[in-house]
C-alpha cells in the first residue's frame, strides 16, 4: 500500500472519531458549559506532560494577547454548539456547524481583502438556500429546533472567527504548542463561565465523566490530531473537503444508535449546504493557487 493511500485511511479514521462528538454530547447528561469545560480540561491535562517535555520554551506565548482572544472565541464556539444539540437534531446541528468554511471565506473578504470569487458566491447562496429549507422543515417547532439551528449557525461563525484570528499566531508557533495554549485558555474561560453562572463542577456521575474523557480522547485529540497530521501530506483544501463527510457520518450514527429520525428537509437542505461548501472551497482553493503562481511570476 502506498503512502498516500495510508494517509487517506488515516484521515478516514480521524473523520470517524470527529463524527462521534455529536453522539457523545447527546448522551451526556450535564449542562453544555460543563461538558465543554471537561472536554477541554481533560484534553489539556493529557497534553501537558508532552508540552512541558518538548515545548517548555514556548510557554512565553501564554503572554501573547492573541491566543487569549482565540481561546475565548473557541470557548464560545463549544458552548453554542453543545447547547444547540440540546434543542435541535444532531443532523441539523452538524450540518449548520459545517458552514464554518463559508464564514471563513466571508471574513477573509471583509477583513483580509481577499477576492470573493463567483464560485464562492454561488456556494454561499446554495448554503443559504439549504439553511432555509431545513428551517422551513423545523418551522412547526418554532421555539425549539429553530433556536437550536440558530445556536449551531452561531457556533459555525465563532469557529470561523477563531481560525481566522488565530492565523497570525500559527505563523509564529508550531501546531502543537499553539493548540495547547489555545485549549488552555478555552478551558479557563469555560471554567470562569461555569463559576459565574453558579454551575457546580461535580456531581455528574461516572457515566458523564467517561463521556467527557471520551470527547477529549476521540474527537479532540485523535480526530483533530489526525486531521492536522494529514495536512503535512495533503493540501488543506483536500482535508477540508474530506471533513464534509462528518455531518453524513454523524447523522448516520445518530439514526443507527440513537434512533433519531432524519427529516426529508434536513436531507435536502444538507445536500444544498454541503454542495455549496464544496463548490465555494474548490473555487477558493483554485483562486489561491492562481494567486501563488502570479506571485511567483512577479518575484
Automatic annotation (TrEMBL):
Transmembrane region positions? Answer: 7-27, 33-53, 65-87, 93-112, 119-140, 146-165, 177-197, 209-231, 238-258, 264-285
Alphabetically ordered keywords of this record: Membrane, Transmembrane, Transmembrane helix
Cross-referenced Pfam families:
EamA (PF00892)
Query: Which InterPro entries does the record associate with it?
Result: EamA_dom, EmrE-like
Cellular component terms per the entry's GO annotation: membrane
Boundaries of every EamA domain copy: 6-135, 147-281
Cross-referenced SUPFAM superfamilies: Multidrug resistance efflux transporter EmrE
Q: Please name the PANTHER family in this protein's record.
A: ACYL-MALONYL CONDENSING ENZYME-RELATED, EAMA DOMAIN-CONTAINING PROTEIN
Q: Which family does it belong to?
A: Belongs to the EamA transporter family.
Q: What is this protein called?
A: EamA domain-containing protein
The species this protein was found in: Halanaerobium praevalens (strain ATCC 33744 / DSM 2228 / GSL)
Amino acid at each position: 500500500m502506498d503512502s498516500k493511500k495510508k494517509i487517506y485511511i488515516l484521515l478516514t479514521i480521524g473523520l470517524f472519531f470527529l463524527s462521534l462528538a455529536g453522539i457523545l454530547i447527546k448522551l451526556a447528561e450535564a449542562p453544555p458549559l460543563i461538558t465543554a469545560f471537561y472536554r477541554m480540561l481533560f484534553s489539556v491535562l493529557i497534553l501537558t506532560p508532552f508540552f512541558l517535555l518538548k515545548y517548555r520554551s514556548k510557554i512565553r506565548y501564554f503572554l501573547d494577547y492573541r491566543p487569549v482572544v482565540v481561546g475565548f472565541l473557541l470557548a464560545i464556539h463549544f458552548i453554542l454548539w453543545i447547547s444547540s444539540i440540546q434543542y435541535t437534531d444532531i443532523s441539523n446541528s452538524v450540518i449548520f456547524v459545517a458552514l464554518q468554511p463559508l464564514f471563513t471565506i466571508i471574513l477573509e473578504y471583509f477583513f483580509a481583502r481577499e477576492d470573493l470569487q463567483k464560485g464562492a458566491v454561488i456556494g454561499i447562496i446554495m448554503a443559504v438556500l439549504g439553511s432555509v429549507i431545513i428551517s422551513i422543515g423545523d418551522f412547526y417547532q418554532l421555539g425549539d429546533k429553530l433556536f437550536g439551528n440558530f445556536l449551531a449557525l452561531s457556533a459555525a461563525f465563532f469557529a470561523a472567527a477563531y481560525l481566522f484570528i488565530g492565523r497570525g499566531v500559527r505563523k509564529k508557533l508550531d501546531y502543537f504548542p499553539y493548540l495547547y495554549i489555545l485549549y488552555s485558555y478555552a478551558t479557563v474561560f469555560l471554567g470562569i463561565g461555569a463559576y459565574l453562572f453558579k454551575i457546580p463542577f461535580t456531581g455528574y456521575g461516572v457515566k458523564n465523566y467517561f463521556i467527557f474523557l471520551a470527547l477529549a480522547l476521540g474527537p479532540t485529540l485523535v480526530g483533530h490530531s489526525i486531521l492536522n497530521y494529514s495536512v503535512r501530506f495533503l493540501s488543506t483544501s483536500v482535508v477540508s473537503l474530506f471533513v464534509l463527510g462528518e455531518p453524513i457520518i454523524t447523522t448516520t450514527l445518530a439514526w443507527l444508535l440513537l434512533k433519531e429520525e432524519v427529516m426529508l428537509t434536513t436531507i435536502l437542505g444538507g445536500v444544498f449546504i454541503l454542495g455549496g461548501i464544496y463548490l465555494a472551497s474548490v473555487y477558493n482553493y483554485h483562486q489561491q493557487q492562481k494567486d501563488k503562481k502570479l506571485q511567483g511570476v512577479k518575484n
